[in-house]
Amino acid sequence: MPRRGTKVDTLSRKVLERNRRKFTKDLLSKLASLINPTPQAPKWKSLDLLDQATAHVKQLEQRVEMLKKRKQQLEGSTDETAGMRGSMSTVFTVTELDSAVQVCLMSRSNDKSILTRVLDVLEEEAAPVVAVSYSRVGDMINYIIYSQAVCSRIGIDSSRVHEKLKRLTAGP
């Protein structure tokens, strides 16, 4: 058995430390890809990445609360208000993420053109779409749309995007 402080002991500690650093680096890169799923994701410093992840989780919690309230409102409506629900059939949130915007859109599955109109609004605001995902629940479709600013220095005016989408979903 080698004595403490020998060359073999030092090498095994170096290997263990290298493996630990590689494992940590891999976990941080996975976290970075979850926070910013765009292909040209920036390189993050560890502390900045953890701060960004914390902010992202808080935004997600706020969005979950807003969606729970909206769900309660929709479930609370009666058959008498079914005619009014047509105008409330689309719900959306706009979340600003550095030089990107995330739009969460919930609409009735019979409204086929809403996604195209939302994509048009994002293109008008110089925020080309880089990723779209969707899921279907009953007669509702939930879209998550990620847009990246054409110029990261200028960014995206999420309030303008929100106002345009509000007018768009209000209907004629």
From TrEMBL:
Compartments where found: Nucleus
Protein's UniProt keywords contain Coiled coil: yes
Main localisation: nucleus
Keywords: Coiled coil, Nucleus, Transcription, Transcription regulation
Chain ranges of the BHLH domain: 8-60
Stretches assigned to coiled coil: 50-77
Gene3D superfamilies on file: Helix-loop-helix DNA-binding domain
Keyword S-adenosyl-L-methionine in record: no
InterPro entries with a match to the protein in the record: bHLH_dom, HLH_DNA-bd_sf, MASH1/Ascl1a-like
GO CC terms, sorted: RNA polymerase II transcription regulator complex
Lineage: superkingdom: Eukaryota
GO molecular function annotations of the record: DNA-binding transcription factor activity, RNA polymerase II-specific; protein dimerization activity; RNA polymerase II transcription regulatory region sequence-specific DNA binding
Family matches, as Pfam families: HLH
UniProt xrefs under PANTHER family: ACHAETE-SCUTE TRANSCRIPTION FACTOR-RELATED (PTHR13935), BHLH DOMAIN-CONTAINING PROTEIN (PTHR13935:SF118)
Protein name: BHLH domain-containing protein
Native species: Vitis rotundifolia (Muscadine grape)
